[in-house]
């Protein structure tokens, strides 16, 4: 588990690097936060599947 701001790209990049999956529980500015996560995952070369409940 990593605590930090989803808008801090350096922290987000470090948190996602080498991970098998990413789970994010978000509230607030969802489009901005989700895009930051997707961008970081794409930058890390991670494969991803999005599921919204």
From TrEMBL:
<dbReference type="InterPro" id="IPR016040">
    <property type="entry name" value="NAD(P)-bd_dom"/>
</dbReference>
<dbReference type="Pfam" id="PF13460">
    <property type="entry name" value="NAD_binding_10"/>
</dbReference>
<dbReference type="InterPro" id="IPR036291">
    <property type="entry name" value="NAD(P)-bd_dom_sf"/>
</dbReference>
<feature type="domain" description="NAD(P)-binding">
    <location>
        <begin position="2"/>
        <end position="47"/>
    </location>
</feature>
<protein>
    <recommendedName>
        <fullName>NAD(P)-binding domain-containing protein</fullName>
    </recommendedName>
</protein>
């Amino acid at each position: 588990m990593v605590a930090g701001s989803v808008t801090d790209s350096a922290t987000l990049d470090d948190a996602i690097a080498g991970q098998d999956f990413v789970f994010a529980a978000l509230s607030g500015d969802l489009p901005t936060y989700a895009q930051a996560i997707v961008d970081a995952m794409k930058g890390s070369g991670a494969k991803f599947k999005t599921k919204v409940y």
